[in-house]
Fold this sequence. Notes:
It is built from 17 helices and twelve strands. The two termini are 29 Å apart. The protein is 38% helix and 14% strand. A seven-stranded mixed beta sheet has the order 2-3-4-1-5-6-7, with helices on both faces. It has a three-stranded antiparallel beta sheet with strand order 8-9-12, with no helix packed on it. The protein has a two-stranded antiparallel ribbon with strand order 10-11.
Amino acid sequence: MNALEVLLNPLTTLKEESRLALANLADAAVDLTVPSVRLGVTGLARAGKTVFLTALVHNLVHGGRLPLFAAAAGHRMTGAQLQPQPDDAVPRFDYEAHVQALVKDRVWPDSTRQVSELRLTIDYESSSYFYRKLGPGRLHLDLIDYPGEWLLDLPLLGKDYATFSAEALTRARAQNRTDIAAPFLKALEETDPAAPESEPAAQTLAKSFKSYLAACRADAHALSMLPPGRFLMPGDLDGSPALTFAPLDIAADAAPARSGTLRAMMERRYEAYKTHVVRPFFRDHFARLDRQIVLVDVLHALNAGPHAITDLETALSEVLGAFRPGKRSWLSSILTRRIDRILFAATKADHLHRTDHDRLQAILKRLVARAEEKARFKGAEVDVLAMAAVRATREATVKHRGEELPAILGTPLPGERLNGDTYDGKSEIAMFPGDLPEDPESLFVKGDSVSEDVRPSFQAAQADLQFLRFRPPELDTTAEGLTLSLPHIRLDRALEFLIGDRLA
């Protein structure tokens, strides 16, 4: 990135780019002995980030069945083991506890709440005769797990408080959000930006704004465009002034805020949020990634309706806009890291019969079309697939009214309901999940509002689909008493795209 690009890039400054270059030089010096790949794993709420990371490590360490991962299928991967992570100040991804939850307890592990890291070292033999003669190869795979909601904060670095407020209120007043946002909008109407600054007033409005964002994320709405991301998972910042602000109604031609007013107080806290929360995440974690997988729960959005799909499309475009995509080269990897491969994965493919996987993938490809175009333009490789990092169901054929239907078999989670039945978490059932629409375009809104011609497509799709949450599978054991690896759908294909070239 040259000086002009830095000036045009709102996410960084010349000083920060210099710091990043020094950090990259330090990383490159370490990589001279054993090269490393920093893989970012993200996705919006309930997309399955923790499950993906756990399944990836479990299959590599325990020799899982990975026929489309060339290094494993060709028996060139000779081992994989966990190592101490390189960043001592970053929490470790609790792999062992998550495996215990999946394999022993058969419950899904807790979702991602903070940045965490894990290093997996892979031993392999090169497919090249020349490099094979030089001896066995090693690769450090540094796995960086972080909440996808935090990505939606990165564009805020290029927006002032007035722009943030205008965009947030436009979304709150949109057709599909006015009812959800009604309490917040009422509190906003009763707030005078020019009033003297007041901590109780700031707390009251911020609490109302956070409640509105949380309601948007609920299953009934499944909306995705919900910055600021830390408002939904504040962690140890809960209650801090940097997380106690909200958008205000500010006219586009309004004069600068007067000192000592509520508006000035909100602007100051918004800037503090960017300085002390967003920018350190970008600098210390996000800007150091080499590759990225974005997990997307398409089925959850589809279940919530056309507004959820449209909102998810916008969020994914915003997420990609925060990435630093580009073609990998030896010099660029030393001076300025670029994400040269991005994988978008539609999760929970095991909720559908395999005959619908191509349709699920087609819907995701349409969802990320704008984001994919931007990344490819800058030189990054992009792929899209439907997958299940842990396969919780099996496939079967059932007869219904004399007709054979493709079905899935699995054990629903306790409390799941279908057709008036409530499941206890012990009984396995067979069900026909339905079919996704053949034409993904039929699910997408034209223009700014949901037109009547889109609603029938959604209503037909929703009426035809039935989704249950299933328990993780019970794993078989070998004659020697060894537990087999977690089953999956296309985890091997994901691995091949993300790191296959580095093990060639």
